[in-house]
Hints:
The protein is of the alpha/beta class. The protein has 2 domains: 3-172, Peroxisomal Thiolase, Chain A, domain 1 (3-Layer(aba) Sandwich), CATH 3.40.47; 178-330, Peroxisomal Thiolase, Chain A, domain 1. The chain is 33% helix and 23% strand. It has 11 helices and 13 strands. The protein has helices spanning 20-24, 31-38, 52-67, 91-98, 115-128, 154-157, 209-214, 223-245, 262-272, 283-286, 293-303, and strands at 3-12, 17-19, 42-44, 76-80, 106-109, 134-141, 163-172, 178-186, 194-195, 220-221, 254-257, 312-319, 323-330. The chain has a 5-stranded mixed sheet with strand order 1-7-6-4-5, with helices on both faces. Strands 8-13-12-11 form a 4-stranded mixed sheet, with helices on both faces. 49% of the residues are buried. The mean pLDDT is 97. Oxa(dethia)-CoA binds next to helix 2, helix 6 and helix 8.
Amino acid sequence: MPTSIVLGTGRAVPGRVVTNDEFSGSMDTSDEWIRTRTGIRERRWISPGETGVDLGLEATRQALAAAGMQPGELDAIIYATITPDHFLPGNGVYLQTRLGLGPIPAIDLRMQCAGFVYALSVADAFIRGGMYRRVLVVGQEIQSTRMDVSPKGRHTAVLFADGAGAAILGATDEPGRGILAFDLHSDGAFAEKLWVEEPGSLHNPTISADRYEAGTYFLQMDGKEVFRHAVHRMPESVRTCLDRLGLAPSEIALLIPHQANMRISEMVQRELGLADSQVYNNIERYGNTTSATIPIALDECVRAGRVAPGDLVALTAFGSGFVWGSVVMRW
Length: 331
Ligand code: UT7
């Protein structure tokens, strides 16, 4: 049975840098609060005219170039996003058209901050099952357009941001290489701890003028509750993968935790007993780009030479749903 390896990665973020100081003008916050409570110094937000698919396309082009592939060699697209450019169809089909591809499947997957890990699991299943040999996996979000930048939104607007990352998974028959284990979970009992209530088909029309005025389309979060679960679930999930493989955290060469809060990443690191050199964080520069945090970080690591063939790489994520999960691979 083939396993899946990463053939190439790419990333794209908007050019517009939004510093912490830009928020302190319009809401009761400060650079100091944001840095010390979250680790974020700046993030990227799109400018008018830029789209999510633009970012997904750029990240894909880089991943294709890194893999030495032409778009036509792709067998399928798995596009993780909870912020598609339109309510429907999803961004996958737009990316497919922009790449000039024939009618290959373009699957949109919405698993919030765990979107990229879940998308890898779907791509890996296609490859292991022998259905496809080269699958593009994209994680991309535009969160800035659903942020409340009034004083009421300070607990979320300073956190979330825009970006895209991509990876191409390919089949290999080399024993011991590639994706070795997944661990995936959901628990809908906490769905409303981090959600966007509307627009939704529960309402007719999907969003009414008065609900719009009430701001129900803004992302709402019980930050403390999400934090409490995230710091527990991510290390637990990494350990589950490692236990299944008979490996120890000390053998991890690189862990990329979902970038939600630097304090969460530090607690995940501590819980797993990892050294600083084993963990990569970039939240300082990008904030929380939801399904894009992991592929953006992975691409930075690959391009900086932080992963070498044979390295044990772990990715772990937690987010709205709640959904969470991890993947462990031998690079
Ligand atoms: O992607 C996955 C999902 N997201 C996450 O995993 C995020 C998880 N949660 C967090 O990262 C943190 O809970 C936050 C960063 C959202 C908040 O940090 P916290 O240390 O849990 O702060 P808090 O919610 O307990 O708020 C402490 C105080 C409150 O004021 P009072 O009630 O003590 O007077 C907040 O109103 O900080 C206030 N606050 C702010 N102050 C300045 C909240 N946001 C801000 C802000 N600037 N931007």
